[in-house]
């Protein structure tokens, strides 16, 4: 279908022959939709993300992003990696990190005034305007996540992929972080990866369940006070609108 | 100290001036490349490249003295083998995901063994000690110009691609998504490291290369949170280490490479202890602030 931001068709991927991590996966994400990718560890969430970023290539099937191959539209993708990939002693400040979002725009990677302005604006957008010269690793977990969002935003992306953005930060910072994310809703396509099944907020359109196979569920709000009591904050249920009886690989089986 | 400055200005011993100037000029490359090596955590790879160079030096000496190819100087052999080692080790570390450390260790030892063999079968008396432990006083005028050339090349490339190297070292996946050819820059960084090691060998010898490459950057990493500041301080420190080491070794007639490394090592230990104490003190102050009673 034209107008989709992400189109995945019959994709299979395996790291070792005979052990597919993803098998015959097909789904699409509409332009400016917000989806959450959930699933158990080892279910293939990160693999799928790497396929969308063209860091991995599918063994079978096809991935189209804005009707192009992923590697052709990489610069239109904003990416926020898991925090654990970083070396905590690396000497960078906040501005150094955010400017990396503009790296692809110049042959030698020099930053222009426009690049610096874009980085500055991106930091303002996530309420981190005053932190430009702070050492990146001296920030709190929640602040670092917001800086990493700003880095992705600085590249003026049309799709934002976030890998486990709320892992390793406290519930209070998680709440703030989702507030920050909300400003991006409807402005760009959002894909948030999370292993946390419970945290599916009301601004999401769909939940993409990844466990070797992929199933997309629409999110619909539930008004039960009961759930709020259990979780302590607003959580929405996933309603299974389609038939799941045949899919034996779906989780909780 | 006065003797040191007298020696510097003494027209009868020009080699001493060359030695000090070589140290000063090469320090710029040491500081910049050393910082990349430390933040990217590839000191082990740098060590392997250094030891492979002995193979290249041995091969060049053999070709020069036995086969009679006059342009095969130890410097040519060192540069060629350093680049070759960097490329092979780079490919291994990029694509040989399993047991890359074992492969790199093997190259480390084989390179060294080749060097020892070639030096043994080369006619005439050759002392490998000056390559192993460095003899900056043996830097010839010709070597001196090669050192300047390499230095300019290394510094220019590192400055031109500063932002790209920074991004590749910090977060290679993100850099790749930005369209940066990550593997290419990683290989370029290893080649620059290899050339810097060639410079270092003429100052401290290949056994002690790693110390002078990493200690200045490691010390400055304690005090700064920006890559370029870390480089600047590392340049300054390696300048201080090489020239003070030379001065002291001249004064007391000691091997210069060893003196340089001992000064650098002692400074590293002192700053590490200082920083650990400072952190402990700050944590105590913070706890006192939180619990005023």
Characterize the structure shown:
The complex is a heterodimer of chains A (253) and B (293). Chain A has 253 residues and is α/β, with parallel strands linked by helices. Chain A has a single domain, classed as Rossmann fold, CATH 3.40.50.300. Chain A starts with a strand and ends in a 22-residue tail after the last helix. The relative contact order of chain A is 0.18. The C terminus of chain A is likely disordered. Chain B is mostly helical and 293 residues long. Chain B has a single domain, classed as ABC transporter involved in vitamin B12 uptake, BtuC. Chain B contains 13 helices and no strands. Chain B is globular, with a radius of gyration of 21 Å. At the A-B interface, helix 2 of A face helix 8, helix 9 and helix 12 of B.
List the helices and strands and how they pair.
The complex is a heterodimer of chains A (253) and B (293).
Chain A: E1 4-16, E2 19-30, E3 34-38, H1 45-52, E4 60-65, E5 77-80, H2 94-99, H3 113-125, H4 141-154, E6 159-163, H5 171-182, E7 189-194, E8 206-211, E9 213-218, H6 225-231
Parallel strand pairs in A: 3-7, 3-8, 5-6, 6-7
Antiparallel strand pairs in A: 1-2, 1-4, 8-9
Helix pairs in contact in A: 3-4, 4-5
Chain B: H1 2-9, H2 14-39, H3 43-67, H4 74-95, H5 100-121, H6 129-133, H7 141-160, H8 162-170, H9 172-177, H10 182-204, H11 209-221, H12 227-252, H13 256-290
């Amino acid at each position: 279908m034209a107008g989709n931001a992400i189109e995945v068709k019959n994709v299979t991927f395996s790291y070792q022959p005979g052990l597919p991590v993803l098998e015959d996966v097909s789904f699409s994400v509409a332009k400016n939709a917000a989806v959450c990718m959930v699933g158990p560890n080892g279910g293939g969430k990160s693999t799928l993300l790497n396929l969308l970023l063209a860091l991995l290539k599918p063994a079978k099937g096809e991935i189209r992003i804005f009707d192009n191959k992923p590697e052709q539209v990489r610069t239109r993708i904003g990416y926020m990696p898991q925090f654990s990939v970083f070396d905590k002693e690396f000497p960078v400040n906040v501005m150094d990190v955010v400017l990396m979002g503009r790296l692809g725009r110049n042959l030698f990677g020099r930053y222009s005034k426009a690049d610096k302005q874009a980085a500055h604006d991106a930091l303002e957008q996530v309420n981190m305007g005053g932190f430009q010269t702070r050492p990146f690793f001296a920030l709190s977990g929640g602040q670092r996540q917001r800086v990493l969002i700003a880095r992705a935003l600085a590249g003026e992306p049309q799709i934002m992929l976030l890998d486990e953005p709320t892992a390793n930060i406290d519930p209070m910072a998680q709440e703030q972080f989702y507030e920050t994310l909300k400003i991006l809703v409807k402005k760009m396509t959002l894909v948030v990866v999370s292993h946390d099944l419970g945290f599916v907020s009301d601004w999401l359109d769909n939940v993409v369940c990844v466990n070797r196979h992929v199933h997309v569920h629409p999110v619909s709000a539930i008004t039960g006070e009961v759930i709020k009591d259990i979780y302590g904050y607003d959580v929405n249920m996933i309603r299974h609108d389609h038939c799941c009886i045949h899919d034996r690989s779906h989780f909780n089986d | 100290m006065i003797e040191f400055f007298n020696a510097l200005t003494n027209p009868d011993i020009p080699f001493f001036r060359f030695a000090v100037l070589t140290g000063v000029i090469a320090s710029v490359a040491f500081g910049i490349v050393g910082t990349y090596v430390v933040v990217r955590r590839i000191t082990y790879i740098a060590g392997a490249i250094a030891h492979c160079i002995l193979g290249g030096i041995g091969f060049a000496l053999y070709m020069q003295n036995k086969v009679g190819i006059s342009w095969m100087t130890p410097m040519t052999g060192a540069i060629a083998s350093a680049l070759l080692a960097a490329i092979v080790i780079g490919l291994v570390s990029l694509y040989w995901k399993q047991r890359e450390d074992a492969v790199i260790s093997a190259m480390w030892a084989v390179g060294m063994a080749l060097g020892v063999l070639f030096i043994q079968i080369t006619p005439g008396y050759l002392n490998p000690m000056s390559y192993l432990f460095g003899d900056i006083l043996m830097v010839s005028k010709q070597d001196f110009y090669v050192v300047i050339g390499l230095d300019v090349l290394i510094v220019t490339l590192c400055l031109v691609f500063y932002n790209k190297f920074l991004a590749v070292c910090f977060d290679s996946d993100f850099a790749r998504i930005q369209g940066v050819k990550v593997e290419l820059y990683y290989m370029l960084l290893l080649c620059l490291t290899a050339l810097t090691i060639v410079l270092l060998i003429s100052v401290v010898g290949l056994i002690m290369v790693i110390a002078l490459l990493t200690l200045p950057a490691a010390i400055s990493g304690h005090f700064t949170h920006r890559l370029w500041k870390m480089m600047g301080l590392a340049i300054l420190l390696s300048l201080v280490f090489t020239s003070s080491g030379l001065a002291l070794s001249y004064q007391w007639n000691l091997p210069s490479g060893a003196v340089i490394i001992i000064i650098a090592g002692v400074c590293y230990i002192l700053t590490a202890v200082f920083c650990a104490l400072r952190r402990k003190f700050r944590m105590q102050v913070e706890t006192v602030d939180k619990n005023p009673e």
